Amino acid sequence: MSLNLEFVFRVLVFPGFAFVLLFTMICDWVERKIEARMQNRIGPTYTGPAGILQPFADFVKLLTKEDIVPLDTKNFVFRFAPILSFSIFVFAFLFLPIDGANVILNSSFEGDLIFVLTLVSVANFFLFLSGWSSTNPYSAIGATRVLTQFLGYDIPLFILALAPAFLAHNLSISAIAVNQRFPFALLIPWAFVLFIITLQAELEKDPFDVPHAETEIVGGYETEYTGRRLAFLKLAKDVQIILGAAIAVELFLSGPYGPVFFGLPVFWYTLWFILKLLMVIVITEYLTCVFARLRIDQVLVANWKVLLPLSILSLVATIAIGLWLNPVVG
Amino acid sequence: MSKKTKLSPMLKEVFAHILKKPATRKYPEVKPKVPEGFRGKQIFDINFCVSCGLCARDCPARAIEMVDVDGKKRPLFHLDLCIFCYQCAESCPRNAIKSSEIFELASTNKSDLVVRPETSTKKGSDE
Amino acid sequence: MTSVEKKILMLLSDRLGEKILQIQTPQLGKVFVRVNAGVLRDALRVLFEENESAGISAITGVDLGKSIELMYHVRTHGTIITVRTEVPKEDAGIESITDLIPGANFHEREVADLFGVTFDGHPTQRRLVLPDSWPRNLFPLRKDAVIASIPNKLENAAVSDEDMQPSEGRTLIKVVMGPQHPALIEPEKFSLRVDGEIVKEVEPRIGYVHRGIEKAAENRTYLQDIYLVERICGICNACHAACFCQTVEAIMGISVPPRARYLRTVILELNRIHSHMLLLGHAGLEIGYETLFQYMWRDREPVMDIVEWLTGNRVIASFITIGGVRRDLKEEMIPKIKAELTNLKEKMSFYKHLFDSDPTLKMRTKNVGVLSKQDALKLCVVGPVARGSGVNMDVRKDEPYAAYDEIPFNMVTYNEGDSWARLMVRLAEIGESINIINYALDNLPSGPYRVRVPRIVPAGEAFGRVEAPRGELFYYVKSNGTAYPERVKVRTPTFANILSFVRIAEGGNVADVPASFVSLDPCFSCTDR
Fold first, then answer.
1. d(CA C256, CA C259)
2. How does pLDDT run across C263-285, given as a tens digit for each residue?
3. pTM of model > 0.90
4. Are B11 and A290 within 8 A, CB to CB?
5. How far apart are alpha carbons A205 and A201 in whole angstroms?
6. Which of residues 74-93 of B touch A (CB under 8 A)?
7. The complex's ipTM?
8. For chain B, N or C: smaller number of CB within 10 Å?
9. Looking at the domain B33-115, which fold is it?
């Protein structure tokens, strides 16, 4: 297979690696500004116009710090777990239609929804490993909390993700995105709401913030990381956030598809994708601001006793609606 | 208590705050207004001083040193020891010590942190 | 002497007969009973049996040269009865009373550290306020102690690991919280032994910021001491100054003019409002509710501005002095203050609604860290911690000082005893404080705000109590007729409350430890002095 320029461009620049990185940093800035405004303060202001270069400045600052590796850690895992986690998150992005087509053209296949969700779980597992491999009681507690939380919440996530797949008669993300004449968030709003709540738990944001509750366990699984590795870990977490939001956009908000007014459809599709993603991020940030942090046992109770039954019920309801709406969706 | 389930008021409040002006005061671009009676940097008027030394005796932080100026003892204020309680102003029988509105006293130079008796008759000698 | 005190004195005379050596009332109305060291336990037992809500307020030690005087201040029926005794200096030992009342634990350990008195039968012999590496035979508060001989920097200072008793073969993990920990704003160490997620044993260690203020107060004049004791704690600084000045005024026998009493009330209540708001915001931070923290501290800013208008500084007020207050309140300032307070009152109803209805907040604080009323009485806790467990204790009502006998207000109590109750007590007290300030400003008497006092205080002794935001603050001052005090004893509210933390944390979740701890409102600068 010859390496044509378009492939390289798409993977490395747009809508691939460089775009994802840049977009991550912008979303981080949006998050911080929105959180600041909700809390009646100004957020980042000084770096760049309106503080937009702040995430970049934080990243660069971390790169310049000293890299300390504690003596007793398992070196290989400690060094590579954050990088692997970050890479897998970015890799999962290749399967989402961002500008109307996947990053690697024609790479979507039937069942890539399950594949992407599995990649998310594997990447979360590497985050757990990064905490586990630092021999520090605080990291160990934080790592086990991460493991318990994301493994538990993966189940409702999968079940809820099946709802739009059922409505679209397809397990491929790009097919689900294309087949939404009306955004599924309007057709099956209960699934959307539950998906957002499960996303809060997967992304470890308030009220499910337990894995990095600084007031209890210092830094959680990132306690022992410094310098470059901490930069990667933070970047991995940021990419996780927009990956989660992007999956929500693709599954429920008809992905990048929207009205095209003039000119290139690629431009409009990207624009709609960005706008919808920012909307999901604002919603999750709002939920972060209005709630306190739950204890780990309360988080688990919320999962097994509340979210799991509700997600099964929502799937059942979706199947009922789907069968009824069959002629409309097709 | 009430029949309907009470919704947390935080939901509405947080949402309303997105459009409100932030409560942050943008110091140092915007300087705060200092109220009357603020205890800032001392202003010493040498014309009123009678060299009684009560200010130095009563200072809780021992921040006033009586130094010799033209043959008379006058107070020298060490601002790095001072706790700005203004007991010196109270103890002074002639009201020779007054407060100013200067509070930005941080400096990289230790010699900035004194109020000398000779030079302080001018009001508002701010560094 | 009130009728209650007379009754108790008669009871003591009946039970102990001639074992009572002397009954004094050096300070107007306050009873001091002198007994021999061997009779002390019996005297205290009489007091505790007479009233089951009685508790130890403080244990003071004074160096009298050849002997050390111990004073047990017992709080009962809203007043304080002091039982005093002497032990010889060379063989300073006395029986411990921790089996009678567990709340005396820390008080005895402090006297043991600072004066070298051995308490037989005390559960532990470890240091409390002094570091482990302090020389064994040097007792700082004795008059003949030579502190200058201790090197400032200790080479190879070992941290003693005799922290806790061995766990006798059980598999318990030791989690050490502190001295530096993100949950604790001030340094203190709590060694927790946990089994899974349940805390089994807690051992506190304080003294990391012990600055020796009681000793320093003996080297400064009374006027300088006001500023010294103000800086024991930044948050409740006005209360320390007020208590010290009240005590010295009681020794001198002077009374402050009415306008000064009202102005003192205003600054004390402002102090209470800002301290409670600080704590409520901090509680929000501990349970992960950052938005509550930001809103609460934003709403606290007008209070700091009011303090600045009144005193010239935002935090350390330096407003109260012996004989009155240092500056006057101008008439035109009163409407401005009242306008800000009205705004604050509206915001408080928002917060009350929030605490009543937010589900995640209630999940984190309800039934978390429960302190029963029995435990609260046995451990002699004070302040909102006691009032949150149903104990009706408030110095402003029991022994009014400043202008509290003329201003109507309600004492707030909740009966649940959990973290939520303690936070709600503080929230409601903010509303009460706003009412008190409004009443005081409306009825401010005219006249002088200060009387001139001599610099030399006549010989005598007195104690004073003030309701600080965290509870009852107790000062004992002894004067020997010079310009320098002989002994200044400070018993801060958090010192009395620390024992309750052990009771609250044991048996609960590890994850609840920061949340229940912050509801106690610990202030370790106060504790360690």
1. 8
2. 999 999 999 999 999 999 888 88
3. no
4. yes
5. 6
6. none
7. 0.84
8. N
9. Alpha-Beta Plaits (3.30.70)
